[in-house]
Write a sequence for this structure.
């Protein structure tokens, strides 16, 4: 079957008219009579315990299982493509047993909910000591993928691969109970912080080409919205520094459109310094470090499309500079990647379970340059072999 291309995809127009009428009737019988001293009364009867309510998620993420899943033109119509196993597809609409999903190339299609694993959208909780981590939903976004390779180090280390590995390490930390030593930053197996309810990756190592596929910005942002994520964290590493620095030149960009994003950025930045500064390197950085925001001078909105489209607390983490020899060498090591992952993990836990303000964010700045992006016009939806 031919790969589905964004420029060649079918536009699916589904008009569904649903008329539902649910009527319930209850009848009660009252016994009228004259009570006497000798009247005998029947023992009271009680209604049966109602069955547990089955919650059918209206929004969330559909995870494609082993063997792939069919994409359909519409409910009860014809399948036209079998999408690759390991893909995560956000959905914002449901019709009976059918989900209207968005693919990595921003196509829309229908899948039957019996053909996928459904991750229900999260339930909003206020941050603080009462936050229940066991009910948290997190979206992790490994930046770049496929021909959108991101930065490349002097020896050829590809950012897209590093980002994916770090994001997968964060996911593993979140999927098991942990203890955290907040002084040293050590994260160990334990029971203080429970497993997160769900952790979804926009590019998953279980997916096609071990997760090395392209994912458009709109698709990535839609994942956070559909999951109603408590936090959306995009993992990146930087290029082209401007200055020598004494500490890692980490930057965390926050969405100005969503409240709390700046606090999330400030907290993750503090945790990055705690984890990464102990490594020996000739550190490089930009003119501003820490929590930052860039605005489009023409619109005043977030410059980065991912953050501009955000509807949940969202950040883009630029850990270190892969373009620099010392920092590329660190990123090539599992020890450093694990330290990066633990910093992100701790940052998300702190953001959700405390009122800590984190590092004070820099004021949003206008950005008049071209940060560069890869056109999505030839994006390919991976097909199940």
């Amino acid at each position: 079957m031919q790969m589905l291309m964004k420029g060649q995809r079918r536009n699916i127009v589904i008009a569904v008219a649903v008329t539902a009428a649910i009527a319930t009737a209850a009848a009660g019988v009252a016994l009228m009579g004259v009570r006497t001293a000798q009247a005998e009364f029947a023992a009271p009867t009680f209604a049966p315990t109602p069955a547990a309510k089955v919650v059918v998620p209206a929004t969330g993420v559909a995870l494609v299982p082993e063997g792939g899943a069919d994409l359909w033109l519409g409910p009860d119509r014809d399948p036209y493509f079998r999408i690759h196993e390991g893909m995560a597809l956000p959905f914002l609409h449901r019709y009976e047993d059918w989900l209207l999903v968005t693919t990595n190339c921003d196509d829309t299609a229908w899948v039957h909910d019996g053909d996928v694993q459904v991750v229900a959208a999260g339930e909003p909780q206020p941050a603080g000591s009462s936050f229940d981590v066991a009910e948290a939903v997190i979206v992790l976004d490994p930046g770049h993928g496929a021909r959108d390779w991101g930065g490349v180090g002097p020896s050829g280390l590809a950012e897209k691969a590093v980002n994916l590995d770090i994001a997968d390490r964060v996911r593993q930390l979140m999927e098991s109970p942990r203890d955290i030593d907040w002084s040293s930053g050590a994260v160990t197996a334990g029971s203080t912080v429970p497993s997160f309810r769900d952790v979804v990756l926009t590019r998953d190592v279980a997916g096609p080409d071990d997760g090395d596929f392209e994912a458009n910005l709109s698709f990535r942002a839609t994942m956070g919205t559909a999951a109603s994520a408590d936090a959306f964290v995009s993992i990146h590493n930087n290029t082209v520094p401007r200055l020598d620095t004494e500490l890692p030149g980490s930057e965390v960009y926050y969405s100005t459109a969503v409240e709390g994003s700046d606090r999330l950025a400030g907290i993750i930045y503090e945790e990055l310094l705690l984890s990464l500064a102990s490594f020996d390197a000739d550190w490089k950085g930009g003119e501003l470090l820490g929590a930052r925001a860039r605005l489009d001078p023409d619109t005043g909105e977030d410059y980065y499309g991912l953050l501009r489209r955000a509807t949940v607390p969202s950040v883009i983490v630029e850990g270190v500079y892969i373009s620099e020899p010392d920092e590329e060498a660190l990123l090539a090591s599992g020890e450093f990647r694990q330290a990066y992952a633990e910093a992100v993990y701790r940052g998300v836990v702190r953001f959700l379970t405390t009122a800590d303000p984190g590092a004070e964010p820099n004021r949003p700045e206008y950005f008049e340059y071209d940060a560069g992006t890869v056109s999505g016009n030839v994006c390919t939806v991976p097909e199940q072999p």
User: Anything to note?
Assistant: The helical segments are 159-174, 217-227, 261-276, 305-308, 325-331, 334-353. The chain has two domains: 57-120, 133-373. The CA atoms of residues 162 and 331 lie 7 Å apart.
